[in-house]
Each structure stands twice: as structure tokens, then as C-alpha cells.
Design brief:
The chain is mostly helical and about 80 residues long. The longest helix has 16 residues.
Length: about 80
């Protein structure tokens, strides 16, 4: 079993099928965006009281697994 099983679900009737934390409408995408902007796990949980630290870690594990199973997207270099 994976680290996110049961915590992250997808249902076409909830957020157009995007992966969400079970029992919420909070998408993995939203969690990743908040963390990428510099918010801490504690800040995300404080802003979304239905989430737990374990939910955030499950979202991260789901995203890591999703990246392993998808095609590699090249990222262009930025000229100085």
C-alpha cells in the first residue's frame, strides 16, 4: 500500500475529478501551490482546519508518485 492510500481520492463529482484530500474539496494541487509559495505545513493546516499534517504529507506522497508515473517534461533554461 502507498503512503497516500485512503487519504487522497478522486471523484468526477468533486472538483471535476481532481485528486482531493478525502472528505474535503481541498485539492492536492491547492496544497502544493501553498507549499510552493512558502507556506509551512502548519500554516496550511491552520488555514484549513479540516486538514491534518498527515493529509499534507499524503498529498506530497501522491504528487511524488504521480511524477514518477508520468512523462518527463523538459524545462527550458533561463538565459542570464
Amino acid at each position: 500500500m502507498n503512503a497516500w492510500s485512503g487519504s487522497i481520492v478522486s471523484d468526477q463529482d468533486v472538483m471535476l475529478g481532481k485528486p482531493v484530500v478525502a472528505g474535503t474539496r481541498i485539492t492536492v494541487e491547492h496544497i502544493l501551490e501553498k507549499l510552493a509559495c512558502g507556506e509551512t505545513i502548519a500554516e496550511v493546516v491552520e488555514e484549513h482546519p479540516r486538514l491534518t499534517e498527515e493529509d499534507i504529507r499524503a498529498a506530497l506522497a501522491f504528487a511524488a508518485e504521480a511524477m514518477r508515473s508520468t512523462a518527463i517534461h523538459s524545462v527550458p533554461e533561463v538565459a542570464d
